Amino acid sequence: MKKYILILALAAVGVLNSCQDFLDERQVANLTQDYYNDENGLESLINGLYVYARVKHEWDANGARITQAETDAYMSTSPPWARMEVGIYGNDLSSVAGNIFNYLGAGNASFAPMGAYPHINNCNIALDVLENIAPGVFGTNQAFANQRKGEILFLRSWAFYLVSNQLGDVPLLLEPRRVDDGIYHFPKASLEDIYTQIIEDVTFAYENLPSSAPRGRLTKLAAGHFLAKLYLNRAQAAEFANSSEESLRMLYKGNVPTDLDNAIQIASEVIDGAGGLAPDYDMLFDPAISETSPHSEVLWAGQFDVNTGLNGRFGNRSVNYHVGNYTEQSGVARAMIYGRPFGTFKPTDHGYDNYKDKMHDSRYAKTFRHEYISNMGSNSSSFAWTAETAAWWNANKPADQPEVRAGDRRIQNGQRAIIYLENDRENALDSMEVMSQPYQFMVRWVRSSTTGRYYYRLFINGANMGLATQTAPYLSVKKYVDPLRGGSNDEGNFNSEAGTRDVILMRLAETYLIRAEAYGRKGDYGSAVGDINVLRQRAAFKAGENRPSLFAQWYPEAQDLDAAELEPPFAANGDSYNAIMVTENHFTPGTPEANREGYIPTVGTKRDMFIHFIYNEKNREFLAEGIMWEDLHNAGILYDRVMHYNQMASNRTGLWPVASNTGGGNGQNGNGKGQMQPFHTFRPWPFNYLVQLTDETGAPLDEAARSAYQNPGY
């Protein structure tokens, strides 16, 4: 790491913004550092800093693995990852430590080094040149110089924020380093000092950035959102200063009595200055809209481009990580509209069940790909009718459907190929009914029509998929699907990993929930409920808006719908907001609304229920958007929620319903499969980093010093 933590922007400061020209690709590998001392060079360096906005989405082993999964609602599909096994989570060259090494700063083939500290050093160089040389317009136009300084400080603070979320106390490097002198003395600063610094820096950005800017460039609204979140994070941890739990005590960032008020004030200014939420949740993630006319709800997004040569080594790899396998015996071939089925991340059962109002909260319909259509023609890979399933279908089919014969392909081209039902054990479907449809019917719970036994997540051939379903056909998040993967809509690109979509980093819906949480932590629940309901108003189905047909056909909650809503095209009969409007009852102990929310047993007071309700709502609004691990961590509730809700990571017993197909360690026997410990809420310092540290003289740290540097538990 030592040569990468110091490396400058000499390899390539080259990024291009989608549809904008403020980030100019410029090869500077053969130039000296003097290049950055003039106006054009400094501007190029500052523009190049924006490449760090991509860090969570370029490569799973750089950012996605440590920001997306192993929360209460989202998990890795691979059993070793999802269980947080020692071999994955250890402190030397294991996978999580390796990802942290990349996150801190690692080599990147012939491209500029990725990670926080190379980026931070580039920020420090840019700041030094701006303040001490002030070339050209930077010296003659103070407002312009302050704007660019605000960008530098924001982008440096963003890096400190991301690495401290993972590791806690980290080096707070604020001076440029242009020469490798062999001394790698990087003592850690406390989170309290880090937050003091980044709040000061982001405040400067907030005061000096413009209200609008070219797409992808930072604005006052993005800085305000970030600043409000920093104030909230510090306030969240203030009560942990003397906690008996070390992992909570390590979250302490200082105790400033005005933090909640400041979070409310700044969030209010952002909300008042923004244009409101997108009217339809789909608009945020539909690439036909988001890539051409992104809504102003998006306060900041990392930029990628359809010209894949401008996207660095990886491009937007997140477009590959959230889709399960929809091709196995389904009559569906890989297609650009459906995404590449890497099957890396998926919701936990709680992630699905947390949508408490599936018939009325459109976010459930719009977050997931509920149905696939066969597209293989005569080359269909569909499984066939058996004599038994054909007989059942012919005896029970709708009157307008044809009879079938054993041995024929079950799924017809252009027809429904796969649908999903996330039901509970109490609403298990009859196994013969499920297995005798002219499509793959992926149902969480079925009940044997002959023995009465309950089965959990069976494949169409009766195989046990289990909890960590890897590339099985699980109900997948569709927020990242990229029809221009590889740089065009050519179906020949269906195996390309090179995503081109921009990635949302901050949006106004989160600003509302930041303010709501701050209000609630001050006891102003009425104001908090008002902010939450702004999201609920958008989330409601609107009159005439069609629900997915399978909702009316198969979900037991469909009994709440009007008769007309159960008929094609399954259009909502009026606005469903009244059905999902939040009141204080949702977090008041003993109320039906609070009981339905399903709080963990240790949450018993109204204040605690409110806090957990906020994070239930965040999961509903932001599932798979890469903020929930960090948010749960900073709120100090990550471990408790994972233990209760994430069966693969939890070590608890008896919390989940039991199935008959319990074979193998991944079977549904009602017990947790995991090894998570409280100290896992902070990550390990990689061995490859520790062995390169020195003292002030350049002497390598001995084993005792490295051990003292390491986070507890590793």
UniProtKB/TrEMBL annotation:
Any Pfam family hit: SusD-like_3
Subcellular location per the Swiss-Prot or TrEMBL entry: Cell outer membrane
InterPro entries, per database record: SusD-like_N (IPR033985), SusD_RagB_dom (IPR012944), TPR-like_helical_dom_sf (IPR011990)
Keywords, comma-separated and alphabetical: Cell outer membrane, Membrane, Signal
Domain of life: Bacteria
Boundaries of every SusD-like N-terminal domain copy: 114-232
Residue span, RagB/SusD domain: 297-632
Family membership noted in the UniProt record: Belongs to the SusD family.
Name this protein carries in UniProt: RagB/SusD family nutrient uptake outer membrane protein
Species, as recorded: Belliella alkalica
Lineage: Bacteria, Pseudomonadati, Bacteroidota, Cytophagia, Cytophagales
